[in-house]
Automatic annotation (TrEMBL):
Keywords: DNA-binding, Transcription, Transcription regulation. InterPro entries: ArsR-like_HTH, AsnC-type_HTH_dom, Dimeric_a/b-barrel, LrpA1, Tscrpt_reg_AsnC-like, Tscrpt_reg_AsnC/Lrp_C, WH-like_DNA-bd_sf, WH_DNA-bd_sf. GO terms for molecular function: sequence-specific DNA binding. One of its GO terms (cellular component) is cytosol. This is Lrp/AsnC family transcriptional regulator for asnA, asnC and gidA. NCBIfam families: TranRegLrpA1_Halo. The keyword DNA-binding applies. SUPFAM superfamilies: Dimeric alpha+beta barrel, Winged helix' DNA-binding domain.
Length: 142
């Protein structure tokens, strides 16, 4: 088996279950525990694995609304606006995009009104942000 396929198998197990023990990962990836330890350490050092987290369904938590927001920015303001967007506490995730918008963001707030306030008062208020197009999430299917 190639090193690349070993890495992919280990990462696949971690993506399914970030809490899996080295023994569980080794069994599921069909490698030894020392191999798992070596590859995970290497992947962490290289920045491939950037952290471990719980996959939480925010809609199950009391009082939370979520929107995926497409954001457009004037090109001469891109760097500064992106820095400022990353500082918004309600901004859970922020991605560059090759789709209809320059950036895609996951924004969370207590309710729909609070979410609208974040979009209007914190995102659209930033210099250089030219548009924000929210899609409010209703139900998590997977």
């Amino acid at each position: 088996m190639s090193a690349e396929s070993t890495e992919r198998r280990i990462l696949s197990v971690l993506e399914e279950d970030a809490q899996a023990s080295y023994a569980e990962i080794a069994e599921r990836a069909e490698v030894s525990k020392p191999t798992v330890r070596k590859y995970i350490q290497k992947l962490e050092e290289e920045g491939v694995i950037v952290g471990y987290s719980a996959d939480v369904d925010p809609k199950k938590l009391a009082g939370q609304s979520i929107a995926l927001v497409g954001i457009d920015i004037a090109s001469d303001c891109y760097v500064e606006a992106t820095r400022n967007l990353k500082e918004i506490p309600e901004m859970e995730e922020l991605y560059t995009s090759s789709g209809d918008h320059m950036l895609m963001a996951e924004v969370r707030a207590m309710d729909g009104d609070s979410l609208a306030d974040v979009i209007e008062d914190k995102i659209l208020a930033l210099d250089g942000v030219t548009a924000a197009h929210p899609s409010f999430l209703q139900e998590r299917l997977k």
